[in-house]
Amino acid sequence: MMKRISHPILLLAAIMAFSAAAWMRAAPVAHAADLTVAPAVIDTSGVPDDMFNYTLTVTNTSGRQLNVFASVYELTASGTQPFTDPASSDRPAFLADWIGISRGAMIFAPGETKTIPMSVTINPYATAGDYHAVVAFVEGGTRAEAEQHLDGAPQALVNFTVISDLKEELQLVSFGPEKRVSAGFPVVVDYAIKNTGDVPSDPGGDVIFYDRIGHDLGSVPVNPEGISIAPGDTKNFTASWNGAGGMGEYKVGLEAAYGAQDAQLADTAIFWILPWKELLAIFITLLIVVIVAASFLHREYAKRHHRRRQLIEHLLKNKQVIDLKHPHHHE
Fold it and tell me: Within this chain, do residues 48 and 110 fall inside the same structural domain, yes or no?
């Protein structure tokens, strides 16, 4: 059973708390007509690392108290991404991540006007181009409730043009198989990529394997984990290919791309698959065949030579031929 509240002040506080909670649960969602935001559009330009400070004026035009949250989301051709928090990331490609504004609940009395400070800090790695984001003010009992009613909410459109001479550039430092001659598969290829530009970059593409006449035999991703290389850093990568059997000469090529312009990195190298155990077995087999054949031929030659000498000796003995070396020997 609930304890009885006897103190008048405590009783009044309890009634006010209950009334506020009931209002929060029952309060209708604010429409665009309940709030106004000025300015409606902010257009400016800057270079990476520039910081800008603005003031947004928000007015409660309704006759009731509103609980309002500020929402920042990216404005893109593919849609919106509501309630992103710029403090939680540092992505160079999203204006919404550069905007700083209070994310706490703001209570507006009927007819009240508040000035809301807002800052924009251009990401130091931002590339040149146009960026767009929206700062919306949405009413709701909780932030989760408010974020369900972004459509039609009063808002300020933020347009930024970034003027930047930052470049995205990668360099292939080294590329080639660990062994130019291998006894078999798998073949391991090592390569290193250095970021010689001013912004992080994550290369993509494939390491492709060919036979000696140029047929594509298989490939593995250049950067399977999507590693981003920071400016000035060098990352070492390894690609392992199990092959398709066989032996002889092969070629491996790296075909990578990076950046918005799909800049290319490429190189090729030759390697050999020579299974020495199998080759040694073949060599020994051939050697044995040669030795056996030579031995057989030698024996045949010796037999023929022996028969020829016997024939000559027989003819000499029967005086049917003349020994030219000893012409008088037959007498």
Answer: yes
- pTM of this prediction? 0.49
Helix (H, G, I), strand (E, B) or coil at 149: helix
Cis peptide before 39 (omega within 30 of 0): yes
* Residue 236, burial from CB neighbour count under 10 angstroms (0-12, 13-18, 19+): exposed
Say if residue 186 is preceded by a cis peptide, omega within 30 of 0: yes
Q: What is the β-pairing status of strands 35-38 and 204-211? A: unpaired
Q: Nearest-CA neighbor of 215 among 191, 192, 248?
A: 248
**The pair of three-digit structure tokens given for residue 112, joined into one six-digit string:** 């009240």
Q: Which of 95, 9, 104, 106 is nearest to 52 (CA)?
A: 95
Residues 203 and 92 in one domain: no
Domain count, the chain: 3
Domain ranges, residue 134: 8-162
Domain at 137, CATH number:
2.60.40.10
Cβ proximity of 61 and 33 under 8 Å: yes
What integer pLDDT is reported at residue 14 of this predicted model? Answer: 42
- pLDDT tens across 274-313, in order? 875 666 677 788 888 888 888 888 888 877 877 777 777 7
Tell me how far apart the alpha carbons of residues 321 and 325 are, in angstroms, rounded to a whole number: 12
Beta-carbon contacts of 257 under 8 Å, excluding residues fewer than 6 positions away, are 203, 204, 205, 263, 264, 265
What Rg do the C-alpha atoms of the chain give, in angstroms? 43
Sheet containing 216-221: give its strands across. Answer: 181-182, 263-273, 248-258, 204-211, 216-221
* Other CB atoms within 10 Å distance of the CB of residue 183: 13
Residues 234 and 285 in one domain: no
Tens-digit pLDDT profile for residues 136-161: 999 888 888 887 777 778 999 999 99
